[in-house]
Write a structure and sequence with these properties.
- It holds the Pfam family Response_reg.
- This protein is an alpha/beta fold and about 290 residues long.
- The protein has helices at about 15-25, 35-45, 65-75, 90-95, 110-120, 125-150, 190-200, 210-235, and strands at about 5-10, 30-35, 50-55, 55-60, 60, 80-85, 100-105, 155-160, 165, 170-175, 180-190, 240, 245-250, 255, 260-270, 270-285, 290.
- The strands form 4 sheets. Strands 8, 10, 11, 12, 13, 15 and 16 form a 7-stranded antiparallel beta sheet that branches.
- A hairpin with a 2-residue loop joins strand 10 (about 170-175) and strand 11 (about 180-190).
- Helix 6 crosses helix 8 (about 210-235).
- The longest helix has 27 residues, at about 125-150.
- The protein is elongated.
- It starts with a strand and ends with a strand.
Length: about 290
Amino acid sequence: MKDVKVLIVDDSPFQIALLTDVLTESGFDVVGEAKSLEEVIEEVTRVRPDLVTMDMTLPGTDGFECTRAIHKIDKDIKVIIVSSMMDDELVRKAKKTHVCGYIQKPVDSEELSLLINRVMADEELYLELEKLYSDVFKEALLNIFNKLTKTVPEITDESNDNIAIHSEGISIVMGITGKYSGRLILDMAYETAKSLATMLLKRDPKSSEELLNIMSEIANMFAGNACSMINKKNKLFGLRVAPPTIFHGESINISKAELENTFSAIVKSQFGNLTINIGFNRGEGEWMSII
């Protein structure tokens, strides 16, 4: 990642000194400071920073007005709020003002550095994810089967084609958030799900609801473990999984997602076949906030 030029906006000399020390020690290039709207416009025009740390309360103005002024000069300049105040309303307003992130004072140097690096992560980070995610998800799935069933399925028919999915009966869909957004689908026939659930429970599932809950939790463990493994390789990804959504029944079709990179495969297990489909987008995912 290139050197990041940072402008500090704060009306407190004490806070400016603290942030300057923290940012400099973390390897960022502090190129200026501003204490008012007029100084913000002047300094942004003069130094053209890559990123601005923005206090919320400033004489005669606030962080939102200053952010709008910055983006009139250059919409590509990233702004993160660094403020003692933080609540849901402020966060909502910050998102609407195209602020990239929010962190509360007093700042932790490691958290601030991580937030800035995530916000500023460039094409190289996405290419890293693109290169590793399919192998990591395959490894995570094999680990889950091995731990739960003491079996190792075979992964076949691997493809990077982004196609619509015709469900075999049960489709579990999970969103992935973080630096980049993504989606995971785990699909199987009822017979496969019942065979797997029966082995795990050591009895037949009591109901279709119990069966679906078990498959949902397997998908949750699969996606969660894979995302954790990716985050260990590079914490800038910050991937998280959303709660699963389950579709089941006959003639279920899931249209192809608007994803820039996809991976699909058939998982041949002793319980029956399953299909996995994972994909990510290059664009920004979850709004970055450290609370």
